[in-house]
Every structure is written in C-alpha cells, then in structure tokens.
Amino acid sequence: GQASPEKKPAAASAAAEEPPKTLPPEEAQASHYQALGLQRGATPTEVKKAYHSKCRVLHPDKNHHDPLATVRFQRVAEAYQILSNPQKRAQYDATLVMQTACAHLGVQSDPRAAAFVQRHCQIPGREVQGMQVDAHHTMNLIGKNGMQLQQLKYQSGADILILHTALSQQAQILIAGTAPVIARAKQLIQGVILELNGSQAPKDGVVLIVPAASAHKLPAVSQQFQALWMQLGATARFAAPDRITVQGSMRLPQAVVQLQWTLDWRAQILLPTGQTLDPWGYAHYIEAVSVVGQAPVAGRGEAYQIFLPPADPDPTTVRRIICTALSVTEEAEKGTSIVELATRATNAHHSGRPVTQALMRACTSVAVHAEHSALSSVAQAPLLCALHSVLPVAGSALSRRFTEAPLFKTMSELSRALTEAREGMALRARGFTAVREAVPDDGQWRSWDSVLVPDGPLATFWGDLRNWILERRHSLNVPAPPAEWLTSSTVMSSVIRVCIGPPAECDAKLGLRRKREAPGSESATSAPAATASTTTSPTAPGASSTAAAASAASAAAAMAAANSAAAAEAAAAAAAASVEGRGGEDGTLTLVEQVEEVLLGLCGKDPAAFVHIGMVTQEAQKRAARSSERLSKKWYESHRGSFELKKFHHGPGGDEWRVRLAEDARQRLVARLQERDMEKQRGRELIIAEQMLPKLSADSLPRTLREKEVAALLSLLAREGKHPSQGMAVALLSRLCTGKTSGPKELIIECSPFPPALLMRSIVALEKQRRERWVKEHLDMVLSAAALNMHTMSASGGGGAERPRATLPTCANALWAAARKPFDERLSGRSNCLFVSSAGLRLQVELTEKSALSPDSSAFRPFAQMCAWLAHLVVTAKLQEKNREEVMKAFLKLSQACQELGKAPENAPTDPEGLCRLAMAVALVIREDRKTFGTEALQGVAKVIVNRAMDEGSQWEPSQLAVLASAYAAAEVPHEALFRKIGLAAERHTLQGNEWSTEQLMKMLNAGWQLNHLKSLERVLKAIQGETGLQKYVKDATPRDVPLLFNVLVLVHDHAILEDLAKSQKERLNGVSMQGLISILKEWPIRDKGSAVLQTFKSTVVKEAVGLAARKAPTPTELRILVDAAAEESKTTTLMRLTDLAASPALLNALPAPEAQWQEFYDGVAGILSPFNRAGVVVPRLEGACAARLLLAADRDKAGSEARSFVQPALLLHESVLAGMPVLLQALADRLAKSRMPRSSSADAPEVRKLCERIIKAASRLGTASAESGDKQLDGWVARLEDYLADETAFRERERDRDRRSSAAAASIERRLESLEKDVSKRLDRGAKDALGSQWLPILLLRCRRVAWNGGKTALLEVPRPRTAVRRLAEAASALLPKEVRQEADRIEPEAPERPPLSAAAEPAAPAVAPSPCLRVRHLRRRRRILRGLWLQPPSPCTSLGLC
C-alpha cells in the first residue's frame, strides 16, 4: 500500500487548492542522505529499505493533520531518485564534498573544486571524498615543485586536490578514485602528517624522544645538524620540542649514535614499527636486523660495539633487554632471576635467535655477574655453558669478568679438546660409546636423571674428561672441572652434543634418545669383541690374604652391580664370547664355580664370612636349575678345595651348618670376576676405537690417545675386513712401547684391559695381512710383557696388592701367537728370552695347584690349549738348550699327571675339547723325545676317554675326534679300544644327520690308517656310506688322500666309487708318497683283476712307485710289495722298470754296509734282493753290489773260522750269478775250503752243503755261461777295466822279464785297491761311480776275468782260477757232499798252471828279431809315466790292431 514516486505528483496536484507549504531551513538544507536517515557509505539495499520505511511514515494518507506531509513525502522521493541511480549518486556525492570543502574554506564555491568534481563524476565507479588537515602541513604535503604530492598520487593511485586559503587554519583535501584507492591515499597523507609531527618514524629513519633532563642540549644538537649531513649523509629535523627525526640510509645508526653521545645516551628511539627502545634496545635491534639479513648495517662482531653505551646497564635495563631479546614481557618474567634470563637468552642462539653485542654485554654485566657469583658451581654451570657456546659469535662482547673466570677457562679447554679434529677424536669416541651404552635404541627420550647415575657409562666418560684435564692442568693452567658438574644436565648436554650424531639426539631439557639404526647404514656401529675368556685364574701361592679379601669384597660389589648392568654391556660381553668361540658365562662354568659365585654374593662386604648352607643352596639352585646334582651337606664336604664347613651352636637344638669359600677358591673367583669386568671394558674400548680408526693416519696419531685406546686400535686393525694404511700398525705399536721407563711391567699396566697376549694375536694377524716392518725391540718388549703377565707381579711402586696373573686362555693365546711370525723369529736362538721358560714355569705351577685338572673347574680346556701350543712351540722353535730343558721338565710333570689321571678316571675332567688338546700336547713331546717320554701318558689319557669321557651321552664334535686320532697317530701310539670308541662316537654323530667335512674325516681316517686301526672305523664309514655316500669325499680328495680313500673303499667294498676314484685320480698320482702308493698295491682287491679301469690305475701306481723308489730306496716290505705287484702284470715295460729300479743308486746304497753284523747283513740283503729273485728279474748290478759287500764283510770277519757266518748271505745268490762272476766263485770256494766244516749231523751242515753244491754246479757251468750280464753299460765298464788290467799285467810282466836281478820274482802282481781305484777312475767316466755307488770297483772286479780278489784290500793281476778252487773245496767238504756231487766235482777240469818265475841262471835267449821301434818307444814312454805316477793314455792303436 505505498504510492510509487510517479503517482506522487498526481496526489500533490489533487491538493493544489491548498496553499503551498515550505520546509524548515534545517530540513531544507539537509542532504539526501540525511533525508533518508543514512550514512554516506550506505549500500543500494539500505537506500531502498530506508526509502520504503520513510514512505510508510511520511505518506500524506497517514498524516492528514500535518500540512507539510506532502512536501516531506516529495523530499524523500527526490532523495531516493538521486541515490538509487549510481551515476547521479556519484555526481551528488562529489558536489556534496565540494560544498563541504568550500564551506570550511569560508567561500561559497571554488572553480577548481567544481572542475575536479565535475571531471571525476563523469567516470563510472569513481567518487570524491575529502579530509581536513592543518594549513601549516600544506607545503610539506605538496613538497618542492609538487614532488611530494605527485608521490602521494603515485603511491595511492588517487587524484588529490589541496584547497586552502590564507585566512583559514585548516586546509581541505579532495581525493577522487575508487573506495580502496581513496582509503590508501588517506592513510598515506595521515602517515606524512604523523612523520611531520614526530609521532611516527619515517621508513628510512627514526625519531629521538628527548627527555626533559636533556632538553637543554638541543641547541648543541642543532649545531651539529650540518656536520651530520656532511659526514653521514643523514638529516635531522626537530619535529617537536622533544622530538628529533633522523633520516638516512646505511649510515643512520651512526647518526643516531652521534646524537646519543650529545644527549648522554638518554634519548629513546622511536622505530618505524612504532616500537620505542632505549639505547641498549636500539643497539640490539640494529644488530639483530643485520644478523637476520634484512638490512645489513656495518658488519658484524666488534663493529657493533660503537652502538653500545659506555657503561654497563643497570639491572632494570638488563632485564628489559633480555626480555626484548626473548620476545616476552617483563611482567611475565617478574619472578625470574636475571641469571636464568641471561642463560635463556644466550641459549636462544640454538633456536635461531641472533646473538648481539648488546645482549651479550647485558648477560655479562655487573648485575648478572654479582648474582652469578653467589651461586654454587652446579648452578653456575648453565650460564657458563651458554656463554661458552656463543663465544665464537659474541667475541669480545663477553665481559672479561666471565671469560677469565677459572671454570670458564676449564670449559673452554675442555671444549677445545673435544672439538679439535685430531686430538679430540679419542675423547669424542668415548662420549659416543658412553651414550650408546647408557641409552637404548628405542627412540624414547631418557631424562638426565636416569642417565647421569654415579656408576653409569656417562659418569665414566666424565671421569675420563676430568682425568684428562688433571693430567694437563699445569701445562694448561686451568683447574679441573668440578665432579658435581656430572649432575648438571646443561654441562653434560654441551659436552655430549659434541660427541654424538645421528641417530643419537641430545636436548638440555628432554635428555637423550637414540633411534634404532638401520642395518648396513654408515652410522651403524657394531661393538667389537675382545678376545679373552672368563675362566678361573688362581693367584700365586703366598699372596696376601688381606689383599685377597679386599679384592674379593670389591669383586663381590662388582658382581652385584653386574646383575643390573646395561644391555649394551651384556651385548658387548656376548660378542666377546662369540669371538672366542664359547658361550656365555653360565654355559661354561661348572656347578661348583656357580655355587662359589653365589656364595661370594651372599657374603656381602666380608668375603670370609660364613653363610647358612640352606641359603646358599636355595640361591644356587635358582641359578643352576638345569643341574641334576643335589646340593646337600655331603656335596659341600666332597668339595673341600672350594668350601669350608663349620657348625655353629645356638643353644639346645639350634645347631646349624654354615659354609664359606676356601682361600684358594676365593682367589680364583676374584680373578675370574676381574677378567669378566676387563672383558666388558675391552668391548667399550673397541667401540671407541672403531669410531676413531677411519680418521687416523700413521703420521698423525692424537696425543690424547691413551695406551688402552692404542691397544684397542691395534686389536681392531687385526679384524678381518680392516685394511690399515701403510705403517699404521707399526706406528701404534711404537706408541705403545716407546717411553716405558719400567719396561714390560708398565706396558701391562697401561694397556689394561688389553693383555699382551691380545697384542701378540693382533700383531700376528696384521703380519698375515701385510708384511710389516716391525721394530725388533718392540716385539721383544711385548714378548717380555706376555712372559711377565703369566705370573703374579707386584703393583706399581712396589707396594699394595699384587696384580693377578693372566688367565689360562690369555696364556694360551700368547703361546699361539709366539709360534707364528713375527714372534717365532725372535724366539729362535735367543738365550735371553724368558717367554718359553715363563710358560713352562706357569705350567708347573698349574700342575702343582692341581686345579686345572679337576673335574670341578672350567679351566681344564684353556689349560689343555696352553699345553698344546707350548708343545707346538717346543717342536717348531729353535730354542736354546737351557730353555728347552726347563720346558721339558714341565712336560715330564704333565706326563706324570696324565698317568695319574689314567689310574683314577672317575676324578678326571671330561671336556672333549680339553682332552683332545691335552692328548695332542703329550703326543708332540713324545714324538720329540721318545727316550724321555714313554707312551704311558697317552695310555692314561686314553683310559680316561674310553672309561668315562666318551660314553653315549657325550657330545664329541668331528673336529675333536679328528684331533684326538691325529694325536695318537703323531706319537705312533696305537690303541685299539680308543679307536673303537672314536668310531662309535663318529657313528652317532653321523646317524644324527650331521655331515662331516672332508678335512675332518680325512684327518681321522688317516690317523686310523697309519696305526692300522682303520678296521675299527668301519662302522662309521658304512654309516656315512648309508647316509650321504662317499662320492662327495672322493670328488673333494687331494692327491695325498688317494691312498687313504682307496683303502677305505676297499674296506667298505664300494667298487663303483673305487673305479670313479681310479678314473679321476689316475693323472694326479705324482703328489702321492711312496707309502701311499705301496698301501694301494698292498690292499689291491683281488676280485677286481678283470677291471680294465683298475688295471690301468694299478699300472700307473706301479710306474709312479718305481719312479719314487729310484729316487729314495723303499723299505724291504715296500719293495717286496712293489716288485710283486709289478711282476703280476708280466709286461715287458714293467719288468724293464724293475730292472731300472734294481740298478738305481738309491737302492744300491740302501744295501747294508760290510761292517754290519751277519744277521743284520743277511736281513738287509735278503729284503732287497729276494723280491727280485722271486720275480725272476735280472738285476746284475744289484747282484754284484750284494756279492761285493758279501766279500768285504767276509774279509772283515777274519777271526771267525766257521763257515756258517757267511753261508746264509751267500745262499741268496743264484748259481747263475756265481757262474757269471768267476772272481766271486773262486773267493767263496777258497774261503769255504779254508774254514772249519761242520759235522754232517750239525744244524749248520745243510746250509753249508747247499752252498757247496751251488758252487760246484756254478763251476761246472763256467765253460757254457755267457760272460755278459745283460746290462750293456755294466758290461762296457767291465770291458774297459779288463783292457786296463791286461795292459797293466803285460807291462808288469815285461818289467819283470827285464829285471835280471829279481831271480825270485813272484808269479803274480798285487795291487792295492785304493791305488787301483785311483788309476782306473781315470780310464772310466764318472757315470760308473754315480751309478754303482761307493763300491763301484769291487762290483766291476767281481765280473772281471783278469784279476783275482777275495774281498781284501789287495787284488792279484792274474786270471782267476775258480775251477781249481772248487776242486779244493770239494776235497775239503767231501764228508758233507753226496756222492753224485763229488763225482760232478771230479769232472771239473782245473785251469792250466801259470808260467813259472824266471831265475837268474836260466835267462831267456835273446830274441831272433829285434823289437819294433814303435814298441820300444811305447815302453819307454809308459815307463816314464809310471815313474811319474800317471796313467793317462790308452794302449797304442798299433797294439790293439796287432801291428807290432
């Protein structure tokens, strides 16, 4: 029901009759907005809503009583018509603004304003607004040449018109543009006005608010205005009586400082941000802005000190500066001390906040120092740590009252040591290791209270740091850090932060945490293990009981602490145990040793106290739950060596039994616990070394390295996979051994927990990796230290408790290393080296104490290992005789102890590893000296093993069985029962599904084969054949294993694999020994003669065996087997090989010497010659050698007139051999004829008769027997000898014929064998000597037909007469010979008699023909040569051709 504006004039015309009415002036002059009740910025919706509302109220139909209702209604309609049209509304607004501005200026209108409004109202979307400012700001707004106004227009984007008159104190500004543009223009104009008033600082300047106390100095500032502009390029303007606006660019802070000096540093500075700062705050502000890179001013560091006031700030200023730096209010930190605020502000550097010179001056001011000095050392530590952390940044801003404080210097020196690249490496590695041990890798934060425990790893690390400072406090001139700093999380976090890295994190508030490391990551570091054991090590007799009790108490405390040790330490111990090849402690200790530890833990501080037996039993059964033994009073009584029982009376019926540790047991337990603790220490040191090793070089080892860390580095280098740089190992050893005033003793103490034995093992491993140039003196020092460590020694300085001796595993390691390079060279031939003697003495001490051989001790295994390595050292090293005798005394005592064990096996230890090592030690010394050591010791060990140690429930490993069998084979001590037990144990191991390695199986089988006990191992061989088969071991076999495998396959009747072995190894027999080849032929399977593969293999074996026998003579048994096997083949080539074998110098030299006894001589000759005789092989050289030695032996036995002495050896020669050697036949016949013949009824008669018959038959064959032996080379040598003898005989006869004075000259000519050998050797080549050996001339003489020799030292140059000698023999032995033999002898025609000697009366007639000149010349020359003792030329060719 509202009328539209178009109908309103019609309604008004309807009332035209009424007189016109006018509105009051205030309503008539109101704007359209006021007419509608709106504001200037009303939206179109608001305009429409207001219009409708006014229409409802002012409609004439509703206001009959109001005569102006129509006028008011029309006025509203007109306003709506203008404001509802955007274009009309904009034009109306501009006109309205212009009218308002003109009204303020006191004028009706302004053409500039009208034009301005008219111009902008024509642009859609634009409007014109106005604002009023003071007239005195007009010129500043316009600026010089209108530049300021143009800049305002440019920055805002609006069009601006400034209207002012001289009479008005206000100026009007018209602004045209869009609404946002107009708002920005107004903001810019207002900012300029505020800057002109000094209420706001310009963007490129500040405003100094001068207090009233310094207002009198403003004239001085005014005078300096020109200087500031000239020097710094800054301008200063007095915007108000108490304000100075300073503008400039890079030199603005310097200008402010100049003004502050004039104003006594009292002015406040208003920043462009609206913040008001004092001089300290402004200095902090400008440096902070520069540090974060927003507006670098003048460089950093000391350059900013010029902005600081000269005097220290007061406490209020200090608090305000620190709160400003921390972005907190002073009200919020009202109750906080300034020391704590200073600590927080300094530590804010770690969170990215800048550290300024002003802040550092405030944190080290007099006010802070006064409050800080009153605190304790622990409370002082946080601020000192914070200041030290910003020292590189703050520089000289820190006050000297802090930087020259003793504790601050200590912190600085400690930080320097930790952060130094080379020297601090060791300290950082210790800190990293301590964090790894103290914090689990579960990613959870551990509070400082939980990790900074007094006995924890971090406490140990802090103690190392304090000790490092204490050792150098005089050279560093700083005090040691207080021990209480360990409880300060701030100190420890600042120290640990340097040492750790990912995945470990450190926070001063939260604590420490360590995330789990990914396997294989670079940061992952595994804890290396130390090579040591935790077995019993009793102290030496005579040790102080008080010292032992004190050590026991400390060990008990250590054991109690070990029950709650960190997981890292347990892991390190487990890793160390795995390196040594053993399990954890509970797995290696016996029940008695476990009860000993329980009892020591229950004793508390008094290790000698008695404890109730029930309490001990209850706790021990919890620990040893797997043991089936019952711990009763009787059990304790049966172990008197470890426990002492005592009955305590407590009234009637109140008696009780108590127990305590025996003195020796307590000492052993203390040593064992100490070794366990040292093992953990080695694990930690090796972790530290692993962190340092990649960063070290041989020529730059840090000075901060301790000896134990150097030893850890040396041990770590020896690990597999580590490749040290050249000279690193030598440098580390030199670092250890140089400068030791006390020598080996100091080395032992300083390298603890690394014993010298571990250093020796490391050196041996490094020598194996690379040949190092070790210093001999350093190696000698390590050896001496290891020798000294085997025994108890006094503590440093000669007083106090004694240092325990090394454990048995440590001694075994030292002996193992001493037998290898480079230590073996230092032991050989050195009389001053006490290492071997010390080891022998330690062995005697252990045998005297009898604890190592007790079944209740876990020390038996390392004791046996020590014995084995000491025996190995005795066998291999070239020891001085004195040292050797001392060690042999110890082993003689060990031998007696082993015999005692065999007498009482129930009291002997049963550890398999220890027993096999003990057997090997005894076997080595038996093989070394069989005269001193019998086999009783090994027999005793065998009894222990057979009767107790190797039952069905025992677990013997294959390696242990192999070592045990090899020990008895090395000593050549057979033991059938032991090898049966070994076979049963091996069979059980095989039937359980376990597989044997080739090396272990071959070692065990080879031992049984050598001792002829292979049959005892048949069951295990068949078990292996049924489980996995023997094919694998045949494929993996080496040439030296072929004989053993052949015998094994023959034993188990596996002929298929046997043929495979023959095929695969036929071409590889050149590496097999003679004994191996003979064993193959000895055990040759008879049923497989038809196998072509085996026959070919046998031929190859025979060929190789013959070749070896030709180089080294076999034994008679081996020769018999070889000849028989070769004869079975019946091949020409094989028989030729046998002939060559018989002619080999090695076999000829193997014949017994003529000086041997007749039985020995007979056995030797029979063992070599008989196999060839049975095989029917012609061996002329061997036969000649045997005959020559027979004659030489018979000539040696001139005292014996019995024929039986040489009959047996002579019967070894066949009659054909005798027929081919006339010299031998004559010599034997003559010797038999001259000897006393036995009676026909005596036992010797058959043999003498047989020899006589053989000689007679041989003599009857002389005419038909061939002079050749079948050996062409031998026949050639004999022919050349005969030629020489013929010439010699002819010459001697002619000389005799010419000598008229020798009427009684002998019919024959004698020559000594020595002279004859010398002359003949010039005629023959050297091949005869090399081929026939030392008896070469007798061998040739026996086959020669121009000399007679009976075995003596001379020979007759005459034709031998064997038939004549045989006739004489037949006459002498006619009583023994049968009739037909005598008749055969009678038929033998003797040789023609020799020419009788010439006499002086019957001189031969002169020859009818003169001798040939050639013959005379030759005789003269030959005589001349004889006189000179020479015989060089052969006979003249004319003689041999029959020309003369």
Describe the structure.
- The protein has 1444 residues and is mainly α.
- It has 72 helices and 15 strands.
- The strands form 5 sheets. Strands 5-6-4-7-8 form a 5-stranded antiparallel β-sheet, with helices on both faces. A 3-stranded antiparallel β-sheet has the order 1-3-2, sandwiched between helices. The protein has a 3-stranded antiparallel β-sheet with strand order 11-13-12.
- Strand 9 and strand 10 form a beta hairpin.
- The longest helix has 30 residues, at 663-692.
- It is elongated, with a radius of gyration of 61 Å.
- The chain starts with 7 loop residues before the first helix and ends with a helix.
Please outline what is shown here.
The chain is mainly alpha-helical and 1444 residues long. 57% of the residues lie in helices and 5% in strands.
Present the secondary structure layout.
Layout (H helix, E strand, L loop, with lengths): L7 H7 L10 H4 L3 H5 L7 H15 L10 H15 L2 H20 L5 H11 L5 E8 L3 H5 L4 H10 L2 E5 L6 E8 L1 H19 L7 E5 L8 H6 L1 H8 L2 E6 L2 E5 L4 H11 L5 E3 L5 E2 L1 H13 L23 H12 L11 H10 L9 H7 L2 H8 L3 H13 L1 H4 L5 H4 L2 H14 L5 H14 L9 H4 L5 H15 L1 H4 L12 H11 L4 E4 L3 E4 L30 H18 L4 H13 L5 H4 L2 H13 L7 E2 H11 L9 H5 L5 E6 L7 E6 L1 H30 L14 H11 L10 H10 L6 H8 L4 H14 L6 H14 L18 H11 L4 H5 L7 H15 L10 H17 L4 H23 L8 H17 L7 H14 L8 H14 L4 H16 L6 H13 L7 H10 L3 H5 L6 H11 L2 H11 L8 H9 L9 H20 L4 H14 L2 H11 L2 H5 L8 H18 L4 H17 L7 H8 L3 H5 L2 H13 L10 H16 L11 H27 L11 E3 H11 ...
Antiparallel strand pairs: 1-3, 2-3, 4-6, 4-7, 5-6, 7-8, 9-10, 11-13, 12-13, 14-15
Helix pairs in contact: 4-5, 6-7, 9-10, 15-16, 15-17, 16-17, 16-19, 19-27, 23-25, 23-27, 23-34, 28-31, 28-34, 29-34, 31-32, 34-35, 35-36, 35-38, 37-39, 38-39, 38-40, 39-42, 40-43, 42-43, 42-44, 43-45, 44-46, 45-46, 45-47, 47-49, 48-50, 49-52, 52-53, 52-54, 54-55, 54-56, 55-56, 55-57, 56-59, 59-61, ...
